[in-house]
Design goal:
Helix 3 packs across helix 4 and helix 3 runs antiparallel to helix 7. Strands 15-16-17-14-13-19-20 form a seven-stranded mixed sheet, sandwiched between helices. The chain has a six-stranded mixed sheet with strand order 10-9-8-11-12-22, sandwiched between helices. The protein has 504 residues and is of the alpha/beta class. 52% of the residues are buried. The longest helix has 20 residues. Helices cover 38% and strands 22% of the residues. It contains 16 helices and 23 strands. The chain starts with 8 loop residues before the first strand and ends in an 18-residue tail after the last strand.
Length: 504
């Protein structure tokens, strides 16, 4: 009788080394393309988190007081190591999430761009100075670290979203605890190793894995000063409210229902190509995926025909196979949930133009694959429009005018990203000005900002005041201190003051 294969267990990373943890709990990590468990991951409890917090707090004084040039040089070395190991990180993303290797490579690169931005921290942390705000009185500001920061990140971007957080926090002089999705733990561990190799002191960056138990411990731990989150809207709202109640600084990015408005004057071939990638790339498991097309007037019939034709031609298979456009979904449960939305759309009366249910990859029948689905004549009250499906399902709504399209988008409770396709500068400018959404693309389907601009939505897509990375990331991970200075000399008036001081 053959002995069962003993699977690797991914540990935590605390104080510069791997740590098994004390909970005794673990969970499975799947390869979505095969449907098989590829490894296990340790689950942290509150005691494990406390060990990580104590390590982060112990490392804080030295790192906070380190010169900004030293911090910048660690980021520069980390960037070099990321560049040398980009393919390895992308392969880990594909293995545990399922997205295609080229897509994974691109997502790692977008994370590396934030590290590039963080390398400029000596300039980014410069304060302001005013001379003689009063007689012989000067005033200046400094930006100082917040303390111990935590990040809670989703399954769909195991490298990119964490890199939207921790490089900025660490470069600003904070220490960091990362809790990635337990579905995709390996990228975080590899990045922890690379940070250590780059010269980051032990305890500045820590990784804990797990489920709700460790998330709740992060939200409640008094030793954590700030929390960043990306995930679904209900969880984002809970994290925002809990952290605020516990006196923590918090940015919580929630869900999305991203619309693309298509006007009759748009180049429909170009638009259809753009929408195919935006809707079905990464199997639709992107918070910036286009999941609703608003076709205006005469654009609708030819656009739906083009999208349908291109959706049927998408090559679906294992993410590490050559020539694939789309891989599997992350878990069997999520695949079945997304397929259930297709069932719902049919029951609601929408026209199913392309049906992805029942799709199988020969030889990978146990993989978590789902074909592309396209609905037409969708109404705003339908569940397939109201909910964030987070899968390869695209819905098309029809309106008569640009004014109606803007009103439809603005009525939606989500406001992460949106796009308009048109050759009219006037229409695009009106859309840009009137749309109530945080990120807008003009003939750009997925307007994810570059690293020196901030990423974040409005309304139910963001809880908190500040977005991630860019200038707003610097603001989130620092506190401003204002210093007013006077050096008395022989001509300085003496005596106490008993009224509100004024400077003149």
């Amino acid at each position: 009788m053959n002995k069962p294969v003993e699977l690797q267990t991914v540990p935590h990373w605390i104080a510069g080394k791997a740590a098994a943890g004390s909970s005794g709990r673990s969970g499975p990590v799947y390869n979505p393309a095969t449907g098989q468990v590829s490894k296990r991951v340790a689950y942290a409890n509150a005691a494990d988190l406390d060990v990580a917090v104590q390590a982060a707090r112990a490392a804080l004084p030295e790192w906070r007081d380190a010169s900004i040039l030293r911090r910048a040089r660690v980021m520069q070395k980390f960037l070099q190591l990321l560049q040398a190991n980009q393919k390895q990180l992308a392969a880990l993303v594909t293995e545990e999430h399922g997205k295609t290797l080229p897509d994974a490579m691109g997502s790692v690169m977008r994370g590396m761009e934030v590290v590039e931005f963080a390398c400029g921290i000596p300039h980014l942390l410069k304060g302001e100075h005013s001379e003689n705000v009063g007689t012989a009185v000067d005033c200046h500001t400094v930006r100082q670290a917040v303390g111990v920061c935590a990040g809670i990140t989703p399954f769909n971007f195991p490298a990119m979203v964490p890199m939207w957080m921790f490089p900025m926090a660490i470069a600003c002089g904070n220490t960091f605890i990362l809790k990635v999705s337990e579905k995709v733990p390996s990228c975080a561990m590899r990045m922890a190793e690379l940070l250590t190799e780059a010269g980051l002191p032990d305890g500045v960056f820590n990784v804990v894995h797990g489920d709700k138990e460790v998330v709740d411990a992060i939200l409640d731990h008094p030793g954590i000063n700030a929390v960043s989150f990306v995930g679904s809207t209900p969880i984002a709202k809970h994290i925002y409210e809990t952290c605020a109640k516990n006196g923590k600084r918090v940015q919580a990015l929630g869900g999305a229902k991203n619309h693309a408005v298509v006007l009759p004057d748009a180049d429909l071939e170009f638009t259809a190509d753009a929408l195919i990638g935006a809707a079905y790339g990464s199997a639709g498991e992107r918070c910036m995926a286009i999941s609703a097309v608003v076709a205006v007037g005469d654009a609708a019939d030819p656009l739906v025909a083009l999208i349908g034709k291109k959706a049927r031609a998408i090559r679906i298979g294992p993410g590490d196979a050559d020539g694939m456009d789309m891989g599997p979904l992350v878990t069997r449960e999520h695949r079945d949930k997304v397929a259930g939305y297709v069932d719902t759309g049919v029951k609601e009366g929408a026209k199913l133009v392309v049906d992805g249910r029942g799709f199988k990859v020969p030889g990978r029948e146990e993989g978590f694959f789902l074909g592309t689905s396209l609905f037409d004549h969708v109404k705003p009250d339908m569940k397939i429009y109201r909910d964030e499906i987070f899968g390869p399902v695209l819905v098309v709504l029809r309106v008569a005018t640009l004014e109606e399209a803007i009103a439809l988008v603005n009525a939606n409770p989500y406001a992460n990203g949106t796009a308009i396709f048109t050759e009219s500068g006037g229409a695009a400018r009106r859309f840009e000005n009137e749309i109530q959404v945080g990120m807008v693309g003009i003939n750009v389907p997925i307007p994810v900002p570059v690293a020196f601009y901030s990423f974040g939505g409005w309304k139910n897509s963001l809880f908190g005041d500040l977005h991630v990375h860019g200038a707003e990331g610097i603001k989130f991970y620092t506190r401003t201190k204002v210093v007013t200075t006077r050096w008395p000399h022989q001509d300085t008036p003496r005596g106490g003051g008993f009224v509100m001081p004024t400077l003149g």
